[in-house]
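[audit] Reproducing an earlier prediction to check determinism. Same input, same settings, fresh worker. If the tokens differ from the archived copy the diff job will pick it up downstream; this log only records the rerun itself.
[audit] input (415 residues):
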Amino acid sequence: MTGRIPFFAVSLLLLALAPVHARAADLKAQFSTQYLWYNDPFQDKTQGDLLQYVKFSATKIDAAGRFSTVGYGRVSQQFGSSDEAARGDSDDVLGRIYFLYMNYAIPEDRGDVRLGRQHVAVGAGSGTIDGARVDVRNYGPVAISLFGGYDVRFAETTDRTKPGNYLTGASAGGSFFKGNNVEVSYLRKYDDSDNVREVAGVHVDQTVLEKIKGYADLRYDLIHEAYGEFLAGIKAVPFSDRMLTLTAEVYSSYPTFDADTVYTVFAVTRYQEALGRVDWIVNPEWTVFGSYTRADYDGPTADVGTFGVRNRSKSVKGLTVAASLDIRRGYPGDLTGFRASADYAFGKKALLAAGVSYDSFQRDSMQDGFNAKKFWAGGSCEVRKDMVVKVRVEDAVTRLSSNEVQGRASVDFSF
């Protein structure tokens, strides 16, 4: 049984809750028709996807302007080469709804009630549900969010939502003194009504003198009794012109999985890193950045450095050039990479861009090193005020392929 029945029921409920004395709504929509072509690595033959994305919003449905509706989805068709059927779960036209919900704004900005398919996110985790979310605020120093519903699970081309799969969660947070934010959150996931994931999260940040911000995020897996993720950092803007930004962070991650999956029997190790980064806007033309990361794989380590520069030309109006260098030494091998790109804007109507990347690898598990290159070019043109055409083509040269061309063409329309 798929998720069509519960979502159909939610859709009917949305219509039932719509205001009876509705007036003409303010409707906005965006359409994107895309064609993607690429090489199927399993068949070494060309394959293509034709996709139609639709996003819409309707506001001012009622006289008070409290009801609104938002939707986003796609329809797709996959094509194989002339003598090979497309690879996938189905050769039919496939549809997918990413979100479709109605929102009610509680008077006096006291919160929102949202019903339908929607993306939900708190510090403890995130997901997509067919259900309800309630946000309550401005009743005191603490804002509260509650959500729950069917856990929407997308496969590559199918929707595997089914009864018995649920996602619920809650968060509570507020600002208790100037520059301070605190949030605690909780998320629980069910599979066939069994609890398969239970996570608690905490977020704290504090801004001092509008120049220094400290922040920390923590996730704790209650089923596996392990700290899944931890991030702590400081970001400083030391000068009044705010042209220089300094960032320092520490991060730790320990993989955990849903309790009913086979992945829980795999041995995993904790990953940790310390990062320092500098971003400097030298002047309106030049921006430079650099970072250093010390990575620890529960024993083996690696040193990673990045340096980049970007130039917005004054002499050639509309031209932007960027380049960066990546160097990695240590586990699980060495890497030296270079990237360069340029784009030229013809006013606000059109843009041309191109770039190249080159990477040299030396894996610990391989005796010989190898190189990889990628070349790409693209552009966009505003045909008219409500229509934009975009094209991007790239060619990659790797150990597995000497010529792997892929691209995307799209026509975007809005009203």
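[audit] rerun output stored. Observation attached for the diff report: Residues 2 and 319 are 50 Å apart (CA to CA).
[audit] end
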